[in-house]
Amino acid sequence: METTFTAGFIGLGLIGGSIARALKKYYPDVQILAHTRSRHTTEYALEHGIIDEICDTVDERYHKCDYIFLCAPVECNASYLGLLKPYLKKGCILTDVGSTKTNIHKKVEELGLEEYFIGGHPMAGSEKTGIENAKALLLENAYYVLTPAAKVTGEMVERYRDLVASLKAIPLILTYEKHDYVTAAISHLPHIIASSLVNLVKDCDYEDGTMKKVAAGGFKDITRIASSSPEMWEQICSANSENILSVLDEYINSLIEIKFSLAEHNTHCIHDLFETSRDYRNSISDSGSGPIPKAYSIYCDMVDEAGGIAALATILATNGISIKNIGIVHNREFEEAVLHVEFYEEMAKIKAAELLRKYRYTIYER
Ligand SMILES: NC(=O)c1ccc[n+]([C@@H]2O[C@H](COP(=O)([O-])OP(=O)(O)OC[C@H]3O[C@@H](n4cnc5c(N)ncnc54)[C@H](O)[C@@H]3O)[C@@H](O)[C@H]2O)c1
Ligand SMILES: O=C(O)C(=O)C[C@]1(C(=O)O)C=C[C@@H](O)C=C1
């Protein structure tokens, strides 16, 4: 694998910035140039050593590039293809990071760029935006979907797959059609559900905001992504509307079934709903879902007496369970302060919870 090459970026926010940072981390000699909508972003990137050159326009400097990453919102990405076309050097891999693929593949076909284009989509991210939140670690252990266009050579696919793997992501080749159906179900619909749920609570809340005040783990877990960028999600929903409509229909039908079960007091169906979802959700690995390592934690009601923490730590230590972190937390999820204990691995957490319950501690697992 070449260690000196040139990469060009269009758009350099959370995802583009994270890829550029990862390239710099694993290929210190890489040359990176970038064009973004606002100069503030490229100036920040230059100051922080994330890029080497600012391009205020898309011009012949892009002819130096071995890779070009389109990292703006999905419809903007497609609109840059025509501008880049005159500057593509032979063998350059033109790629994007967009959350939808059909729209950009269609534009690639229309412009005759199929020998250059390999769609890309890192299945990692966050509700945060902007280069300030970008980190190389974001890609680690995350699936990275690749959708090669029909005229791209096998050698180019291999080269790009190797590059993605060298950034510690996990490459996965799909057709662009399959990608868009899959992401409609596991990413686009969930974002719509999260946002509509938040807005429902906003509209149903009392004037004094009681719902907002008492909203705890359940609501917060399922709605974190409702804080995502409206600009980005408007474009995703518009570009993948057909697939989203299809899974949304399925989802509405399933809600109607749940509604009937509730109205008819069909407890068997309601039990089945939670049992099936629990089993399927528990079978999904959390290990390949991005940079945030899974925390193996328990929370424990504090015994109101001197030496409470020491007593608990002694029970764990004498049973050979190592503690990674321990501390008192005060938050709205628990009525009183609780002790947060973090372990290095899942088995230690399970053993500790069992053991402490035997000693009559009240344990919460989150
Ligand atoms: N955020 C996520 O979780 C996530 C995950 C995977 C893929 N994606 C995809 O990555 C892409 C970028 O998302 P992000 O989260 O990095 O967003 P972001 O808002 O952090 O960054 C977007 C970048 O694009 C630039 N930009 C916007 N319009 C532009 C234009 N017309 N011309 C040039 N630059 C322009 C912005 O200046 C910014 O640098 C999107 O296509 C999105 O679908 C996002
Ligand atoms: O973790 C998040 O905040 C995300 O929304 C990441 C997420 C997703 O999982 O839906 C969002 C959009 C992308 O295209 C890929 C990943």
Automatic annotation (TrEMBL):
Prephenate/arogenate dehydrogenase domain boundaries: 5-292
Functional pathway: Amino-acid biosynthesis
Domain of life: Bacteria
Keywords from the named record: Amino-acid biosynthesis, Aromatic amino acid biosynthesis, Oxidoreductase
InterPro entries assigned to the protein according to its UniProt record, in alphabetical order: 6-PGluconate_DH-like_C_sf, ACT-like_dom_sf, NAD(P)-bd_dom_sf, PDH_C, PDH_N, Preph/Arog_dehydrog, Prephen_DH
Signal sequence extent: none
Name of the protein this chain belongs to: Prephenate dehydrogenase
Originating organism: Hominisplanchenecus faecis
Taxonomic path: Bacteria, Bacillati, Bacillota, Clostridia, Lachnospirales
